[in-house]
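Weekly structure sync, notes
Attendees: PL, DS, HV (note-taker this week)

Item 1: C4-dicarboxylate ABC transporter
DS walked through the input record. Source organism listed as Paracoccus kondratievae. Sequence as pasted into the shared doc:
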Amino acid sequence: MKLLDTVLTAFLVTAALAGAASAECETTLRSSDTHPDGYPTVEGVKAMAAEVKEKTGGRICIEVFPSSQLGEEKDTIEQTQFGVIDMVRASFGSFNDIVPVTQTTSLPYLYRSEDHLHKVLDGPIGEEIAGQFAEHGLIPLAYYDGGARNFYNSKQPIRTVEDLKGMKFRVMQNDVFVDMMSALGANATPMPYGEVYSSIQTGVIDGAENNFPSYDSSGHAEVAKYFTLDQHLMVPELVAVSKTSWEKLSPGDQEIMRTAARNSATLQRKLWAEQEKASEEKVIAAGAEVVKDVDKTAFIEAMAPVYEKYVTTPEARDLVKRIRETQ
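Item 1 (cont.): predicted structure, written out as tokens:
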């Protein structure tokens, strides 16, 4: 019943909002994003839409619905699988229960840098990962950048694993996140994102972990001035189209969509890098201390039990090995 209600609601909302566009376009594809208008992922899909419209002479339009207008990520992924929504932009983390490889490729300290992440996703491994979505009714079009998650706290600069011992950190309700904190000797405290500021302020927790733009926009830098650039998690973002919608397009239009998506990824990554830099400069100017001299070796070694728990098949172990060897 819940699924039916979700599908009907999505249909009514998108039909109403996209009505005008449908009148002038032969095909209108509805694309969902949880982020607000102006966010790099939203602007990326908008750029893709502009290129597709131009190259098809206005035959194909992509209507972007930001700010969770069509639902939260997991709901909109499900709707895209059923073809109620045509496209979705979502984090790999939201695909973990659907496409197992997304959990393996989102493990802590798997990537050396954001450049390393891009090389992995833009190469043969990225193609291999994309191939595992089709059986779930989804066709990946582009990998976007979601930045790197880092630790920040109100107590002290964190430079070593020992500095984390006994500290309380908010994490998302995710088993990998909880196990990561345990392996580092810290205490994971899952809680809603909206409660983090007051919880740090009142000492319920010592800190949290996220990227620079979130650390900045949430105001967390005001109550947790120590930010450690350890880049423990880099979770890819994905733009995918419903297999049902995809198969209605001609091969020529599919190629236009793929090319526009790749071009949009280049723009989105540029916009994300600019937003990260601006947020970093802003929090430093406001008094935050950013610790960059972090030797990640001990942090990586501490993840051994996490990898033992979640990398359990020869295929997964081989994938991790190939990701780490990518230059």
